[in-house]
Design goal:
57% helix
Length: 207
């Protein structure tokens, strides 16, 4: 544990990391376990259950920290190689695009693509979209179309949920809405908060 806190995982942590990678399917399997019937613990037992929850949470944090440390080392190893290749790819792409644009009328007028030994280059026609100059805002477009009576404007009708929530104490309005199956609900969500200060005083053995 001391090695891990200093930023350099010891043999125990390395073995645990390898074990975790080799048994990924079991971790994924745990996520797919169906919800089961749970027996509520007694008042005498609930403290121990909370301790179990805190213990598992603490171990998960340590594993995640170790995972990030391992990934950081991998990124450092391959970042330089990837950076060089990305630059090579970018330069080649720019040259291919320049070739396409320069020869568009001659080579891509009828056939929109060209087969090369290691790939295909060409032009694709995108999906039609409405465009406007940057100097004109969409609000200005709406204003102008509205003034001319154009049928290129549409009105979106939607339920005003905020107003319904604000009116939840009005019995008459709620009665009216209930007749069409609409109501205001407010659900409760169970929460668990770990006392981090208590965790510092606890010693959890990695299993």
């Amino acid at each position: 544990m001391a090695d891990h806190e200093n930023g350099s995982p010891g043999e125990e942590w390395t073995d645990l990391w390898n074990y975790t990678k080799q048994n990924t399917k079991y971790f994924n399997m745990a996520k797919r376990i169906r919800k089961r019937i749970v027996v509520a613990p007694s008042k005498e037992e609930v403290g121990e259950v909370m301790r179990s929850f805190a213990e598992a949470s603490s171990k998960i944090k340590e594993l995640e920290a170790l995972e990030e440390l391992q990934l950081l080392e991998v990124r450092k190893t391959y970042h330089k190689k990837a950076e060089t290749l990305l630059e090579q790819k970018q330069k080649a792409m720019e040259k291919l695009e320049a070739f396409g644009i320069h020869n568009k009328d001659e080579l891509f007028r009828k056939k929109r693509s060209m087969d090369l030994q290691h790939g295909v280059i060409g032009f694709r026609t995108g999906t039609p979209k409405v465009s406007k100059p940057r100097s004109i805002t969409w609000n200005k477009v709406i204003e102008t179309l509205n003034e001319t009576g154009s049928d290129f404007l549409r009105t979106r009708v939607e339920v005003d949920k905020d107003k319904i929530i604000a009116s939840r104490d009005d019995k008459d309005q709620m009665q009216e809405l209930s007749q069409i199956g609409v109501s205001v609900v407010q659900e409760e969500t169970f929460f668990i908060t770990i006392k981090e200060g208590q965790l510092e005083n606890m010693s959890f053995a990695m299993v």
